[in-house]
Each structure stands twice: as C-alpha cells, then as structure tokens.
Amino acid sequence: MKPLFAIPGDKALEERVYQVKEITQPYFSTEFHFHHECQLVYVVESAGRRIIGDNVAYFDSGELIFVGSGTPHVWHNEQKYFEVKNQLQARSLAMYVSPDLLLEHLAPFGNISHVKAWLKKSQRGIEFYGKAKSDILALMRQMLQQQDLSQTITFITLLQTMISAKECRLLASPNYVNLYNDKDQSRMDDIFKFIFRHFKRDIPLSEIAAVAGINVHSFCRFFKSRTQKSFTYFVNELRIGYACRLLQEKEMPMMELSAKCGYNNTTHFNRFFKKIKGKTPREYKKEVSQID
After folding, report:
1. Residue 180 lies in a domain
2. Could you tell me if 129 and 238 lie in one domain?
3. How far is CA 53 from the centre of its chain?
4. Does pLDDT of 292 surpass 60?
5. Range 264-278 average pLDDT
6. DSSP assignments along 141-155, one per residue
7. CA dihedral for 35, 39, 44, 50, sign (positive or negative)
8. 106/251 same-domain check
9. Which of 138, 173, 192, 239 has a Cα at 20 to 30 A from 164?
10. Structural domain containing residue 243
C-alpha cells in the first residue's frame, strides 16, 4: 500500500508550475490521500461521496473544487460504478499546481502576499459556483487546447479568476488541521470505504473497529484525532448529505426518506438534519424548490 503522502499523476510537476489533463476511468480510483501539489478538479461525469479535509458531502457532475496543498481528500464513487456490467464512467478535468514553483516564478513580478494568503485559505478546499465556475471551467478547457506561452497566459488568468472569485465557498472547518501521517492510509481508506458502503444501516462500533483492526476505545480515539469528528457525527453527516440529495431529486413521504437514509424514526432524522444543516428537512426542501 502506498504511503498516505502521494505524488499525483506523473513527474511533470517536478519541473513545471502546473499540469492540466482530462481523466476518464470506469470509476475514480484514488484512495484517501494528500499531496503537496494543489489540485483543481471539475467533475464532468460521476457521482458519489467525497471528503475534503473534515468536510463530507455528496458530489455529482458539474462540481468544481480547488484543493490546497496538503489537504486530505478523496472522491469515492457510488457502489454501482464498481459493478462489472455497468455503463458508467468517471470523467474529470484536473489541474495540478506546484505552490512552491508558482510562488518562486511569480516573485520577480511584484508583491505576491495575496497569492500566498489565498493558497493558505485553499487548504480548507474551495468550491466554485455560478459565473465564477463557468469562467474557470472555460479557462481550463482553453488550456487543454493550448501549449507553451499561450497556455501559461491562460493559466495566469485562471489563477487570478480563482483568487478574485466571490462565488465560492470554503469546505473544511476554519480550524481544520491535517493530522494524518503516512501510517494511516491503509486503515483510514478501509474505514471510509466501509462507511460509504454501509452508512444507510446501523454500524456498531465493534464492527467498524474490527475493520480498523483495533478495539472500540482505540478506534474512537483514532477516528476523532484524524477526522476531528466523532464516528457518530461523521456517519450522520454522511446520511444528511444523502438526504439533501434525495430532497432535491424526489418527492416522497418524510418517513420513507428518513428510512432510506438509515434512520429508524423521523424524530431522530429531523433532529440530526437541523443540527447539521441548521434548518429542518421541510425548510430545506422549500428552499430547493424556490431555486428550481
């Protein structure tokens, strides 16, 4: 198993400030990992759960996220992507940026403190939406058709567009710190994959601790120290994210919806939804309907 600290793609970034490419696979195959390079990801076609730092959410086609240096992350597809006879694909556009080389090459042109500050902020993960997303995506696609100086000029424009964007949101919590080390990858990847497969049912602590290969007390301490969340809160956050997706897509009785998300009764569902989203499921559904 590779260590948690990963080197993305090939070795192009050892000499280049950036690299942009298209990726098409049967499913997103990376494990929960982090790397020194920053990463801009546009999901062309895919769906599943993702983790950026301590942020856990459902992702779908059209998502555009910039992940800063050293921030643990993974895009993990739904189970149907791993079935032998499926016709699904996981397609994305990705750009990797070496923060050290970027700052080194920009320094001769003037004050770069605002670039440093933005790179620091991006370690929480930045999701773009609205016109900012459209503009950034257009520049990414343009870079794929260019080479040499023309591509570099477009890259600088893209960088400035991201830094000045107002239509964006930070994902990880303000005090998030990467506490993972290179011995954690195999264990954390097994834990996350198991949770993603089984979050719609009760997962006893003894069962998930067995997946991690440690006792219950050690597991609770290990999971909280790495994710900065309790196991219970993490699972509920994942369930509520799935509930939000269902509320956006389907009309169904609240009892049926809560059951699909792993709750035995709507009282528990409503309580956790309000705790995590700051509003009730019905209020959320109303807001979504108004946007539509």
Report:
1. no
2. no
3. 8
4. no
5. 90
6. HHHHT--HHHHHHHH
7. positive
8. no
9. 173
10. 199-291
